[in-house]
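@channel anyone free to eyeball this complex?
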Amino acid sequence: MEMYRSHVLVCAGAGCISSDCKSVQQALLANINDYNLDSEVKVVETGCMGPCDLGPVVMVFPDGVFYRKLKPEDTREIVNEHLLKGKVVTRLLHKPAGSDSQVAKFNDLEFFKRQTRVALRNTGVINPESVEEYIARDGYRALGKAISQMSPQEVIETIKEAGLRGRGGAGFPTGLKWQFTASAPGNPKYVVCNADEGDPGAFMDRSILEGDPHSVLEAMAICGYAIGSAKGYIYVRAEYPLAVERLELAISKAREYGLLGENIFGSDFSFDVEIRVGAGAFVCGEETALLASIEGRRGEPRPKPPFPAQEGLWGKPTVINNVETWANIPQIILNGAPWFASMGTEKSKGTKVFALAGKVNNTGLVEVPMGTTLREIIFDIGGGIAGGKEFKAVQTGGPSGGCIPAEYLDTPVDYESLNQLGTIMGSGGMIIVDEDTCMVDLAKFFLDFVRDESCGKCAPCRIGTKRMLEILERITRGEGQEGDIELLEELSSSIKNSALCGLGQTAPNPVLSTLRYFRHEYEAHIRDKKCPAGACPDLLTYYIDPRACKGCGLCSKACPSDAVMGEKKKPHTIDINKCIKCGTCKQKCKFDAVITL
Amino acid sequence: MKSLAELDKLRETLQREMKARDKEHDISIAVSMGTCGIAAGAREVVKVLLNELKEQGLAHVALTQTSCVGSCKHEPLLEIKRGNEKVIYVNVDQERAKEIVRRHLVQGEVIKEWTDS
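replying in thread with the prediction:
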């Protein structure tokens, strides 16, 4: 047995990699070596721990101390003080927003304390490249239990009773999907993992694949056993090279241990998994387009029915589930359906992973029981709005979803409650916007995204989203006309009713939901030619308040178009004919003298 | 992997190597590692403790460090916590460290004459 007195976990999730955790890790290893602690301290590279804006982050066990925003030169102090002498390095600890003291242990931070990790239980805890660490955390026990102690139908019943619903967005009951596929005529059958995560701001699937790839493989094998399939495919986008690399490694390690391949656990059940790398089209996250892409055809959706459970991959019955859905399966088999069903709300069981992005203090990944309120997610775990600004809305469900304003912050989040508010759960992206965000501009952003990603097969989506975008662009330029809002509503309802796939049918959602809650902002743009949030440059006039201006000259030096004039120590003015409305003067001003009208 | 039993056997071994990462540890040894402790040989004591814990298969015991507790003449010094029970051993040399693991942690005997009381 190998044994170390301390394990130092270095997060190597995508966020930390971009804040250069690799140099921190190298420096840490070098210092551990300098102090001759190699045989006492083990450095472990893990997947995403969640608090991405604090990266690079490190956790030191057995103490459970959490260090954040590390630089390579900080590691010497950690090694010399903490690892050698047991003294926590206070200056490298996190101080949560609104708190006046640093917190040493990760379990004392609200961000971690309030989470319930099921799908993310191993992510950020184990080395994703080690099947041994996965096995140590009960990995592949669920597969072993299913094969040696349960009938295929019992496995399906367990998933049904657990009440697990698809985490990719639509929320279809997973057990039913398996049941339909198991009882559909046709052989062979296939198991597919949808890892074509594409919603802006959502990265839970990526984190699971990069941080705990075996959980997905194990779950797919369990499904294979339940529905009578010997072959699985993981469709993962090429933009996730690390996920592809770790999956490949995980598959080969699982084969080595006989956890994939022929006669698993000495039974006559055989199952293997192959990876298919997608080229990153948003529409390929739509299941029929995804299946077409696996088959080597153009990634375009087709009408349903027939559903993949009847006619999926190569026309054969196919279960297709999203990464996060898969990651829940082994835990349900191990702990039982009642355990899973005890979490969440009446119709939405278990937990959900959310990706917090935008104007929130703690951006990153969090997992909470269904039914947790938006307020708890955004304010208690997310730490509230950055820069002391006012919360305005949260966009859930990415481009297919909608926004929720402040008056609904106490809504418990589940599939139904979000639908009632005119948005969707989607894959769990949450983009938080503050008072400085223009809601028309936000709708324009998402519509531009879907217009760009429309595959072009059906006219409502291809042409409709383009026309809607043109209207929104017109409105934000100050050229909106009476009747534009009604036209947007009419187009939205036609597209919703006639587009071929989920991408098109949900494309108008951001417009409809911003119209529902922020109609006055549209009206202000159209009638008064004003942007209430002060975000649409064409509708702004920059003006210097002569009472507040101290004549410091910072703004005139920074102005790229020489539009600011004035003598030193006297109030300055802006020449609106020269002003290009870049906002630089407003950013530079230390006296809040630059205002927009 | 031929059976669930085989997996469970492998898991037990692997689990022990991961014990340090548990959120809670019922038993812990904290070695005082101030300058005084290090000067008196606490580094060597830590190494011996780790080795002995490994030998005895006591992976669930957390081996940590703490700073000077203000009793410099008794260094090297360590505190063992088991549930609510706290025992402080003083003037621990390498031989004593080994004995403490064997007698206190394995056999559950508090070695009175080496404690601070």
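from a first look: Chain B touches chain A at residues 1-4, 7-8, 10-11, 13-18, 20-23, 25, 28, 30-31, 33-34, 38, 43, 46-47, 50, 53-54, 57, 59, 62-67 (CB under 8 Å).
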